[in-house]
Prior knowledge:
The chain is mostly helical. The chain has one domain (4-171). It has helices at residues 4-21, 33-42, 49-58, 75-90, 94-116, 138-141, 148-167. Helix 4 (75-90) runs antiparallel to helix 5 (94-116). The model has no long low-confidence stretch (mean pLDDT 87).
Amino acid sequence: MALPLTHILFTIVLSTLVIDYLIKKEWKKYFTFWTIFVAGFATVLPDFDNYLVSFLNLLGKSFSLIEHRGITHTLLFALIFLIPAFILWKKKNRTFSVYFFAATFGILSHLFLDWFWWGTVGIMLFWPITNQKFMVDLIHKLGIERLQSNIDSVLILLWILYEEFKHRIHSRKKH
């Protein structure tokens, strides 16, 4: 499992790149600091299953779908946020629609990291169609598990460099 900070940083960096290079110019006004914040917050939502499992354990209960990397690590969970995004977009409520798109993006980036980067047990990506767990587990295949905590440092430094060269953050005027 990628660390929560890794999930957040990965999503923030990826969100920034998507906004800068893939979003049409006329739509950029809907993508603000809060859009990136929502994506960053939503990227940790799939791991809230850890808290739910702990709470259920305290009560002496358990449910097969409520386990770490259970239902919250599926495309269905992301769809819960994607459907309102499309409904709101259709109703011309662009601002809140974009927040739901950002939340979906955050959840999908979480699933990607858990599937690709750190997947010792895999994720049930296509549940309820199949219970098969999918994983690449690149960090173990490359033998770089001990570098996990350093990845956050590299991500944030690369993001700061990108922001400097793309948006010139050092030259902003003081108010």
